[in-house]
Amino acid sequence: MPNDDARRGIGIGEFDNGVTLADVGELVLVERISLLCRSGPGSSALGADEVVGIGDDAAVLSISSGQIVAAADMAVAGRHFRTDWSEPEDIGAKVAAANLADIAAMGAQPTSLLISLGLPAETTLMWVERLMQGVIDEAARAQARVIGGDVVRADAIVISGMALGDGQGRPPVRRAGAQPGDVVAVAGILGWSAAGLAVLTRGFRSPRALVDAHRRPQPPYRAGIDAARHGAHAMIDISDGLLLDLSRVAHASGVIVNVDSALIAIAEPLAAAASAYNLDPLYWVLGGGEDHALVAFFAADQELPVDFTAIGTVSQLHDAGTGQLSVTVDGRPPQVESGFTHFS
Amino acid sequence: MPNDDARRGIGIGEFDNGVTLADVGELVLVERISLLCRSGPGSSALGADEVVGIGDDAAVLSISSGQIVAAADMAVAGRHFRTDWSEPEDIGAKVAAANLADIAAMGAQPTSLLISLGLPAETTLMWVERLMQGVIDEAARAQARVIGGDVVRADAIVISGMALGDGQGRPPVRRAGAQPGDVVAVAGILGWSAAGLAVLTRGFRSPRALVDAHRRPQPPYRAGIDAARHGAHAMIDISDGLLLDLSRVAHASGVIVNVDSALIAIAEPLAAAASAYNLDPLYWVLGGGEDHALVAFFAADQELPVDFTAIGTVSQLHDAGTGQLSVTVDGRPPQVESGFTHFS
User: Which CATH number fits domain B183-329: 3.90.650.10, 1.10.760.10, 3.40.50.920, 2.10.70.10?
Assistant: First the structure.
């Protein structure tokens, strides 16, 4: 009944656009977010695995395999997203995707999200509801649900997500495990988000496909589970750039990874934008992050799962003492920046 | 071996106090935090339940009961803590406590923490390491470990935690479930943190016990599990104030809760500070949050677990239509503010 009371008391759409968090206060905000998370097409008060959902001190989940996968990802306004470049739904979906992709990159099924929000008091309730709708929708794409979180006042918008997943009895697919001879294969798109950012930075809004890819990445969650089922030796999601994330696998596995650029098909929108800006599209493909494609490593005689395309191989073990590069492109040192890091 | 490499490469204490995150960059910061989380007396690379720890896309935990409890809590500099009032270890411990107490309040055993940090580039590496040491130490008090998180650049310090726990096969103790005739009982201290804040706000640093309680609350984690074992009907941790948090249980359970002020012993430091500031110490006891005491509801014929003291009873069912108060003190409307809320 509390659900029904909440609907009657403060139904979605009851407040107009201008109502701020300072106007309604924390309790109404939390009630509205809870209501959003519990509603939506086809959903019941609790998801399949939820014993206790939003509204208690903690959520309780039942995970039959007994193997829980957990990851966290934080996004800050002005650094990870811009409220003038993206709709609130897109921002919410993007933060959710970054969190859920980490679960998929272990070969696990995402089940749950916790979202903590730091928000200025002048933020409108509508903006927060639209943000959370984006979170909820992206979670649904991954077959996961929002089960909890926190809201606090802050000077700048900060969104902190934590994703949980079910290992479903499969061994987790880690960064360590890639072996010489392995095929390196990608599911999802590469470089579109970086190209979309380049478009936005130059003040344009098209090609629309690139801008959309930047605003709202769509990680191939199912492909992560498929890779695990096909016995992937190692896997990572591309959040900071293909070369940088490949180097993380290479370091963890103690191998050298070679990307064969001839295997990378450059899609039409990428080619068009690169041509317009007089850039090599490989700059985005190799260095751009945030698409959350999955890169997995398979034995050479293993048929690749649907959605995966080979882009290279593990050429040999890495000899740590010699200063060898851990990632090469066409057998040579990469000619582009390797990816994004904070603070530097 | 990566652990050994990390120790050799960037051992704890190798950098001096003035080195900032801008100097060392994200990769060194993450490596240092990982190193801290893996080291410490008696710890191995992984905790008892960890299959995969820090350093992969996600952590993997084995929870034998298959029942996971999850909660989140975010803290922002200037609102939840002040870097001039608290040492970084205290701030870390306090954020960890707020997260872990929510797990204990469900009657579950805390197992794991994920900590995401938004940090200005001029933050020193030493400050972050001391913060994380506080997190790690408080997690150890609760028999939990730090298994993951994220670090990003931000204009103000923000600390976002997510705690996980093991339900251990017991039914979760929720906010709903309190029944007329139940005894309301508290484990832990009440009002000390609020009194300590009052002391600090007035520019003083003593009574030290109160200031310490504000800087570093010590939730009675074991008492939460004991309460569940003793069949508690409902439970909550006092994070926003006794009356406000009791009202949450009262609403969720549909009952009226009465606090008997004669049952509340006022400890000496509280009495002394209240006398000095010409205040009623009940103001802090009833309205002050952040001590993370646990309040549980037991059947009248149930012997209270060690650490719990009765402070009131559930007087009757709440009749939602009549505008009755859901919490009374000595049978009358409370005479103090009920607790802390954001945005208002």
Answer: 3.90.650.10
